[in-house]
Amino acid sequence: MTEGVTYSFFLGCVMPNRFPNIEKSIRTVMPQLGVTLEDLNGASCCPAPGVIRSFRESTWLALAIRNLALAEQAGHDLITGCNGCYGTFKEALAEVRTNPTKMKEVQEIFKELDINFTGKVDAKHIIEVIHEIGTENLGAKIKRPLNNLNVAVHYGCHLLKPSKNRPWEQTQRHTFLDELVEITGAKSIKYKDKYLCCGAGGGVRGGQVAVSVDIAKEKLDNMIEADVDCLVDVCSFCHLQFEASQPQLNKELGEKKYQIPVVYYTQLLGLALGMEPDELGLHKHVVNTQPVLDKIFA
């Protein structure tokens, strides 16, 4: 049972620093679904699974488990709205639960910090908790169906993989996010290479910007070809990639070809629940969301 549950809310780095509008939409929508979010005091970077872990796994593991230990001490499971953070926590929990030596090493480090960790805590994604509420229960809450809105769904890599450490059905063609989009009244549109990476993760955007943007371009071109009204994501880092890449591509082209509004799922759901755009931070996007709003409020 998800409704009535309190979670320790892990913001991560990107959301509060770059997209407080996404954070606002999560804080606004989740209580309407019967989910209470409690700030996770003292939290650090997750840290990033594709970067820190590659340099020193023991440091990555200790930092990740420290965040989980803070949630455990607060008496709640941890919840996050970033696929990368979600991946870190799922992987870290798998490491200490299946490897007693690593658990002991982490606990030895924590003794000096006066932190207790038993491993009973879980880490969940915002979309995982919403999915657990169920489409029937969500459907009963819809007040403003987003009819005639064509949406390109972007899952993101760390939400789904590796499948052995994720709660989803083990398939290469997931549909749960499409179903959650369509419960709002919007239509999830098929497009080429739907499950392709956004191009930002693993340090690619930080170290090879041109390569990163080129991957985003391929996915955006496929969405344009499918004639979608907006892109819906569930990851603050994927959100950054699609928001930042479009004006960069337009500058290189000298024209405004890339203008697909990028909408986080709780923003889309909030509109369907009857909330106003400003409540959900939709006026604070890099790529203008007004075309989407015009279609919804026409």
Topology:
Layout (H helix, E strand, L loop, with lengths): L5 E5 L3 H5 L1 H10 L6 E4 L12 H4 L1 H18 L2 E4 L2 H16 L1 H14 L9 E3 H8 L1 H5 L10 E4 L3 H4 L15 H7 L4 E2 L15 H4 L1 H17 L4 E4 L2 H18 L8 E3 H8 L17 H7 L2
Parallel strand pairs: 1-2, 1-3, 3-4, 5-6, 5-7, 7-8
Helix pairs in contact: 2-14, 4-5, 4-6, 5-6, 12-13
Walk me through what this model shows.
- Helices cover 49% and strands 10% of the residues.
- It is α/β, with parallel strands linked by helices.
- It folds into two domains: 6-126, Glutathione S-transferase Yfyf (Class Pi), Chain A, domain 2; 135-296, 3-Layer(aba) Sandwich (Rossmann fold), CATH 3.40.50.11810.
- The strands form two sheets. It has a four-stranded parallel beta sheet.
- α12 (209-225) crosses α13.
- The longest helix has 18 residues, at 57-74.
- It is globular.
- The model has no long low-confidence stretch (mean pLDDT 93).
Short description:
With 298 residues, the protein is an alpha/beta fold. Helices cover 49% and strands 10% of the residues.
Query: Which geometry do the CA atoms define?
Result: globular
Unreliable runs: none
- Rg is 19 Å
Task: Note the total helix count.
Answer: 15
CATH topology of the largest domain: Rossmann fold
Which bin fits the share of residues in helices?
40-55%
What structural class should be given to the helix and strand makeup?
Answer: alpha/beta
Largest sheet: 4 strands, parallel
The helix-strand sequence is: EHHEHHEHHEHHEHHEHHEHEHH
